[in-house]
User: Fold LacI family transcriptional regulator from Bradyrhizobium barranii subsp. apii.
Amino acid sequence: MATSTTRTKRGKGRDKQAPARPTQKDIALAAGVSQAAVSLVLNKTETPSVPPATRTRILQVAQELGYQPNHPARMLRSARTMTFACVIPDITNPFYPGLVRGLQTVAAPAGYDVLIFDTDGRPEGEARAIDWLLQGRADGVVATFFHLRAPQLAVLARKGIPLVRLESQHKPDGPLAIDSVYIDNAEAAAEMTRLLIARGHRRIAMIQAEFGPSQRRAQGYGAVMREAGLAPDFITDSAYSEESGARAMKRLLERKGDRPTAVFGASDVLALGAMEAARAAGLSIPSDIAIAGFDDIPVAKLLGLTTVRQPEFDLGALAAETLVKRLQPGGLVAPGRSHELKFEIMKRSSV
Assistant:
């Protein structure tokens, strides 16, 4: 059974013990759950991170403690935070600083600050981001979600928190205000694959991650390979990192007789890891093996990496513009809109 606490009141020369007003922290301690979970339940927020049994326990403990919401505090919390949240999978990925810069360039003149939430590209990280956002930490969200889908994100729209998805090509979600800004990942990868074939390559492998935009890129690569009568050759590793790219390249180089003559990394960091592994094996790029990437991060030009250029600054700026328009009085209303930006093939010395 949950128990209440007391606090001391002072008056007219003597102390009086009065029951303390139960707080959400008290409920969390009594129920054995996090304070964030209590906040979500008491604010009637539907989220998959709080199971029904936990929700029931929290409500029962709140009733036993005699919890009453603090309406003045809630009114204060309902005010604008003048903050945009930028939810990304990896703060160390060189692709994202340019995107955040574009976001800030538009947000700051409109009076908004930008907070970054790093999910580490994991489902539990994305779920924590949703819970954090539902606590009213930001007025709008720009996000890359690898694992959550539109039905799971709809809770933000229902709470009046506009969301702009990055690197996600999808149809507007009915009446929900979920926007997206993206390039055509499949077509960009297809064009890069055509370039590799035009350069005379027939054994072309693609290094991809298990999730995220590399899935669309793999579709474009695979379609062009099959159209050319060639067999797609996918090498999948766990993450978008140089370490993953190096591991995948080592696996390719261990083959006997059917080594690829070209490798296409689904991101620049994967391609850079592949380049490092190839050079460590004594191979010359591109005479022994050609390597291409995707994103055009700043170091790609320095290393001569042929790659697909994403306009990351413009992606961030357009995402911020969309949020500002949705949040301003008389601004955009649902449904969500999709905005496609152009990509460019950057031909350099690695192919």
